[in-house]
Structures are given as C-alpha cells and as structure tokens.
Design brief:
alpha+beta, ATP hydrolysis activity, ATP-binding, AAA+_ATPase, Rossmann fold, eight-stranded mixed sheet, 3 domains, six-stranded mixed sheet, Coagulation Factor XIII, Chain A, domain 1, ATP binding
Length: 419
C-alpha cells in the first residue's frame, strides 16, 4: 500500500487533536535505482550497442513508522546517508513513497530546498512577492508581510538588487525569511540552522523557539545534538534507512554518539561520566592549568588558560589525533579543535607509553562555568575514537565586563558628534 494524505486547511488542523496525530508515518519505504554504468555519449552507444544498464537498489527509507503529536517539536537524526532528508522530502511530497502510508494534518511548509523558485534575473523585491505566493500566501498577505520579511533578512539596502548579484548566504537568508511568514501548522526543517552568520543563526533559533511556543508541529532534521536537546520533545534515530531508536532527545543523543564512535557509551562505576572508544589508548586525566603550569579550577577573564590531556597507549598508534571540546553549562559547544585540524604532528607511540598534550588559548570567555571533553582518535579514521571522556574537567571564569553571548571580544567605541 502506498499513500500520501495531506489536509491543508486550518479546520483540519484544528481537529488534529481529536482525530489523530499531526503527522503519521507508517511502514514507509523509499528506494532509488543506482546505475552501474551509464553510456551517455554517441560514441559509447555505438561501441556498445547491445549493452544494457544494470542497477543496484538503494533502500533510502526502510520500514519507518512513527507519529508526531500536534504541537510537538520532533527531531530526526542520523549520520550522513541514513535517510533523514529523503524521509523529509517524502513528507513534503517531493518524492513519492514506494510503500506505506504518510498523513499530514494541517497546512505544510517545508524548509528543505530554500530558494527553489527564485528567479536570479529578478530583484529581491519581486522574488519575495512571487515566492510568498508560491508558498501559499495571498497577494494581499504577501504585501502586508513584505516589510517583516525584508527586516528579518536584514537586506533592506539590497532590496532592488537582482538576485544574481547576491551572495549565496544572502539568497538563503531571504528564502528563510519568506518561509517563516507562511501560515503553516506543520513545518519541515532540514539543517537550516546553517543559514547566515552566527548572529543570524541566533535569530533563527529565536524564531524556532517562538514557533514552538505557538504550538506549531515541527519536524527537525539536524546533526547538532545540542540543538535537538534544546528544542525537541522527542527524536528518532535513523541508520541506513531504518529506524533504530525513538525516545527522549538525551537518550537519542547517546545512541547517535555510539554510532559515530563505533562503541557503546558506558558509564564508569559510581560516576555519571560518558565515555566511549575502543580503549587502545586511554585518557588518564584532563585538567586546566595556568601558563606557569599550576592546575586551576578558576581563572580571570583575559588570562591565558591551558587545557591539558594525559593519555596512555595500550597499542602501537601512529599520529594519533588529540581533540579538545569546550562546552558551557547547558552543553553548547563553545570551541572545538584537534591536532589534525591545525596540522600539528603528534608522532608515533608504542604500547605502554604516556603523553601529555597542552592546548593554550586566550581566555575571552564570559563569566561562567566551562567543561572540557578530551578525545583521542586514529589518524585518518574520521570518527574512529580511541577514547573520549565527556565533561572530564571544569573551570570557572570570572571577571570581565558584562556582555551578551558567550565570548567577550575586546572592543572599543568611537562616538563622533555631528555639527
């Protein structure tokens, strides 16, 4: 059985609570055929007249089922190739499903291919009107919301510039700003938090929070587990097209890390610590210290701080990658780096050897508590972890002028009074 049902009216959405879930996904399958070899030129067709193209079948979505309640913020997570975006495109009606049943109660707005339908030879002013109408607004509604769209995109100065002269970031910001004006009960959001710079991303976060408080139903695809825990009521984890877990965001985040690091996250006896990796190298300890080598648990804003990892090797490892991730109290990643990213050679280690790795940084952090997650991985192995210990060391930063955000960037003001 294959079916896709959508009830776009507000009345249908109003009855979703009594009639059923806002979104229903039952036994859905979607596959793609991948050709082994294609003959696209005339020469190839002449030389191989009797050869036929053979195919492999990629099962992108494989027997997935879940329901999303009205007003729920629902996360869809998984590694690259797990079927997240394909599933969202099936819900949006971009792809037809092969088997199963999809049902959406309420008007649907997909934040998937932002900017599709934009005409690069027209101005931003013209594109806003056309795109808003394409997304379901009336001409009158598009006119009434025009100023809000442009203000949110922060593109007032470029309103009459043709889109072909926009940067890709400006174009996506404009598309996002149009999309959020649509009167939709169900929103499909696919990795749009990468839109624009950090300040604009914060506006996106604030807008999603407003949508959540307004009771909209949101399906949210992302790799950012901190965003999932921050916004989502529940989440589903996909792997190779199949649903392998469904539940609370924190639990789904742990399972997602297990997939990435290839080992089960385990709790140390008598501790709440999360730790994973194959343990062929182990992080013995981690701490913060001052520039003179003294271990510290607090530091003044503006003073240099070192994050330190001590590790022991239980196997011969060439060029291990040492990682440092700094998070704040709510789990948001403030800074992350590795010796591989900075092209720092680490050398070869033999079983039984130990090493101490220091990473010094200029402390521009605002006053708060910060936690260090150290890690070791094999060179060239991507996410093949040897050891990772979450939130192993803590430092409290104090002092400095009060500012918003997470870092207090050195700055000064210049005020020139006019005549």
């Amino acid at each position: 059985m294959t079916s896709l049902t959508s009830h776009p009216s507000a009345a249908a959405a109003a009855t979703a609570t009594s009639a059923g879930p806002a979104v229903s996904v039952r036994d859905v399958r979607k596959a793609f055929r991948l050709p082994h070899q294609q003959y696209s030129t005339l020469k190839e067709r002449v030389l191989h007249p009797f050869r036929t193209t053979t195919y492999d079948v990629l099962q992108a979505v494989d027997d997935v089922s879940f329901e999303v309640a009205e007003g729920e913020f629902f996360g869809i997570v998984g590694r690259n190739g797990s079927g997240k975006s394909t599933l969202l495109k099936c819900l949006a009606g971009i792809y037809d499903i092969d088997e199963g049943h999809l049902e959406v109660n309420g008007r649907l707005s997909p934040f998937i291919e932002l900017g599709v339908g934009f005409n690069m030879d027209l101005t931003a002013r013209d594109n806003v009107m056309i795109n808003a109408i394409m997304l379901g607004l009336t001409r009158q509604q598009a006119r009434e919301r025009f100023d809000d769209i442009i203000a949110f995109a922060e593109l007032e100065e470029f309103l009459d510039l043709k889109l072909k002269n926009y940067s890709s970031g400006m174009t996506v910001r404009l598309a996002f700003s149009v999309a959020i004006q649509v009167d939709a009960e169900v929103l499909l959001i696919d990795e749009v938090l990468a839109v624009g710079d950090a300040a604009f991303q914060q506006k996106c976060f604030a807008e999603f929070q407003r949508m959540k408080e307004a009771g909209r139903t949101i399906l949210f695809v992302t790799h950012d587990m901190s965003a999932v825990e921050r916004f989502c009521d529940r989440a589903v984890l996909l792997e190779k097209g199949r649903m392998i877990d469904l539940g609370e965001p924190a639990a789904i985040g742990r399972r997602y890390n297990e997939l990435n690091f290839g080992r089960t996250v385990h709790q140390l006896p008598g501790d709440d610590e999360e730790r994973f990796g194959d343990q062929e190298a182990q992080i013995v300890d981690a701490w913060f210290e001052s520039r003179d080598g003294e271990r510290i648990v607090e530091a003044a804003h503006g003073t240099p701080v070192r994050a330190v990892i001590e590790a022991r090797f239980h196997a011969d490892i060439d060029d291990p990658i040492f990682g440092f991730t700094l998070r704040n109290q709510v789990g948001t990643t403030i800074f992350a780096t590795t010796t591989d990213l900075t092209h720092e050679p680490t050398g070869s280690f033999r079983a039984g050897e130990t090493v101490v790795v220091r990473m010094e940084f200029q402390n521009m952090l605002v006053a708060s508590e910060y936690r260090l997650t150290p890690s070791i991985a094999r060179a060239g192995s991507g996410a093949d972890a040897l050891d990772l210990r979450a939130d192993l060391a803590t430092v409290v930063i104090h002092g400095g002028h009060f500012t918003g955000g997470v870092v207090n960037v050195p700055h000064e003001f210049t005020i020139e009074r006019g005549g």
